[in-house]
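Worked Example 4.2. Consider the chain below.
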Amino acid sequence: MFDNFQKRLRREAEIWRDEGIISASQYQQIADRHQFKSIEAAARDRFMMIAVAIGGVLLVLGMTTFIAANWFAWAREVKFIMMMSLFCSVSIIGFYTWQEPKVAKKEGKKPQRSNRYLGEALLILAAFILGVNIMLTAQIFNISGSTTQLFLAWGFGVSIMAYSLSLNSLGIMAIILVQIGYWSGVNDLWYSSAADWNWARLAVRHMPLISWLLFVPLAYACRSRWIFFFAACFFASSLQINLNPLPLQNFANMAPWVASFALALPPALFWSYDDLLFPNINYRLFQPIARNLALIAFGLVFYALSFRWQWQGVAFNAFPSRNNSFLSLPIIDLGILSGLAVLQWLFIYRQTNNPPRREAIFKTGLIATFLGFIVVVPFWHQAINRIGELGSFIFSVLFVILAWGFVQEGLKLNNRRSFWGGMLLLTLLVISRMLEYDTDLLFKSMVFVMCGSILISAGVWFERRITGGSSSSSGSKSKE
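Applying the procedure from the previous section yields the following structure tokens:
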């Protein structure tokens, strides 16, 4: 898009110069400011990279065909040496090509951006070759393994490459590979016995802890918000899948506090997260993302617990009863993550009170209240006394408070995203409660009409409020 803008601007500037609208010196100033001379160089580098990419693909296909033609004729030692040589050569060439612009910049030369892209493409190719090498090595040496072991080992290997190179694309690729390994092994987790236990199932069981401790520091190494976002989502989803807290009910071999910890840990960790907790980091790069994820987690938990069937005594559970020896394993994850959450909350308490800030203290107190309800109410329901529909009512009220907070934030800051997010959450709650209860079609039609009219009226009023406020402020500035 930027290249197209440069081309259009150069074309228009040339027309303005020829028609006498601007002088030659003004045209030269525009050309220097928007770097018209770099347009042709960028096009040359782009086409060169396309040619190199196509040539690289053909070279890889040729080498693959040659290896396939002689695969069964070679000894396994020769096969292993050739595979490792291919991986090392592609990695070394990709690394030096990727580093060439940095070296040229240090030496005062003009760096070629295409070399950096080409080097990154070769490093990604090396990461794919690593997975092929793992699979073929297991085949050569008759090592039995599952799909989960393959993708987990592949993902951990790419993670090491991403850490050593601080490359965003490799970090995202590592998360995707580990996720594939996790989702392929999570179904076997519930049916495995002690005799079938191996490192891959152990990694799947501890995936919430692994994903948080492995990929969050990787986000700092790569300075990538996308890696942090994917790592946080992977942590929260794997924690819920491993503990399976919903629907709320007393399992014969599950402690009643497990559901409370499973539901409260993601928002507690996300909201209290602060980049300054890490040594040698003096900027807040990921805290806004973590706070937004905490609000999303609160919304999901409140919405899920607002349904009546979550609080009924016996409900359908997608997973069978678990083995007691395996149930003790998540306690390690919960203990470490809970300790980390406590440390983060102690840090945020010190930050809000030094110096004391009323708004920060109010937000922190409200979030702590939300977490208290998430922890206490499910535990009370499972351990002390069934509360039935009272639990659904409590979390419906909490959902309304959260949505109304979004609306108020949008009105205060003239933020369309917050305002419309809160209005849509309120509408979702009303429609969900209407569909959950047995109501006739006339009442349902009335509810839909009411929600639609309120959304339209609120949207028109909010947009007029924003445009009216902006026009009045511009008018006052013009008078001054």
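Residues 314-327, 473-479 have pLDDT under 50 and may be disordered. Residues 248 and 310 are 6 Å apart (CA to CA). Compare this with Example 4.1 before moving on.
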